[in-house]
Amino acid sequence: MSNGRTASFQDNSAHGEDAFLIRELSDTSSLDAILDGVTGCEGGYASGFTSQILQDARIESLSDLVDALELANSTLYQSGRGRNLLTTIAVVLKIGEELHIINAGDSPAYLMRGGEALELTTIVKSSLLPSMVSGAVGLHQRLAYSYKKIDLQPQDRLVLATDGLINNVFPEEMAEIVKGASSPDEAVSALSALVSEKRRLHIGRQDSYGTFREDDRTAIFRYLE
Predict the structure, then answer these.
(1) How confident is the model at residue 209 (pLDDT cuts 50, 70, 90)?
(2) Cβ–Cβ contacts within 10 Å for residue 154, how many?
(3) Listed residue (55, 51, 65, 128) closest to 101, CA to CA
(4) What are 150's strand-pairing partners?
(5) Contact criterion met (CB below 8 Å) for 224 and 175
(6) Model-level pTM?
(7) Strand, coil or helix: what is 11?
(8) How many domains does the chain have?
(9) N-terminal to C-terminal alpha carbon distance within the chain
(10) Residue 112 CA from chain centroid, whole number
(11) What confidence score (pLDDT) does residue 134 get?
(12) What is the domain range of residue 157?
């Protein structure tokens, strides 16, 4: 299965701490990652540093990806000791018709199939502070993450997003955008218009903040063929 087409959306004006990576590893392998640096913890540096590690690393397998993430985590942890230099990450590695998903934190990844948004990531909340996520690159001496593997189908659509988007936009709204857009670029345009309208009306998600939440906002769309 080919890698298809991609496009990205980003508004990093709130804190400047989001980062993303779109990397074509071969004609049939790709790597997409979205990172959200933790505010007040030099998150902008952490997200950019981790993204660069993934850009430069030789990645041909899931093991290679884990090694690169462990390197980023170890470097950030040694400098920040789990209190500084923190970033969440959602990364998807496509190898042929297999998709490997790794997540640490609260940046979700979705598979859009049959008009529905299927969540690929597992977001683990802190048992002490349920509103806080317990996963981030640089948080622990060894990287703690969730992992999932799925088999892809032709015409699958992948969407990665930081919480700055998902706190304002329902997954079902993202699915409708993808359903109505014939290309990733069209999806980006539709998402940008929706976010602008929600911001103008000061409307967010009624199941979370209710009103529009200002934060960095980043998304990746990949249309498989």
Answers:
(1) confident
(2) 10
(3) 65
(4) 99
(5) no
(6) 0.94
(7) strand
(8) 1
(9) 7
(10) 15
(11) 62
(12) 5-223
DSSP state of 149: E
State how far the Cα of 37 lies from the Cα of 46, in Å rounded to an integer: 6
Q: Which two tokens stand for residue 78?
A: 């040694």
* CA 170 – CA 176 distance, rounded (Å): 10
- Structure tokens of 224? 């498989």
DSSP string, 75-128: HHHHHHTTTSS-EEEEEEEEETTEEEEEEESS--EEEEETTEEEE----PBPSS
* AA letter at 6: T
The CATH number that applies at residue 40 is 3.60.40.10
Residue 130 has pLDDT above 70, yes or no: no
Task: Give the C-alpha distances (Å, rounded to integers) separating 183 from 58, 80, 120, 141, 175.
Answer: 29, 41, 21, 41, 13
Distance, CA of 205 to CA of 16 (rounded, Å): 23
Place of tokens 């979705």: 110
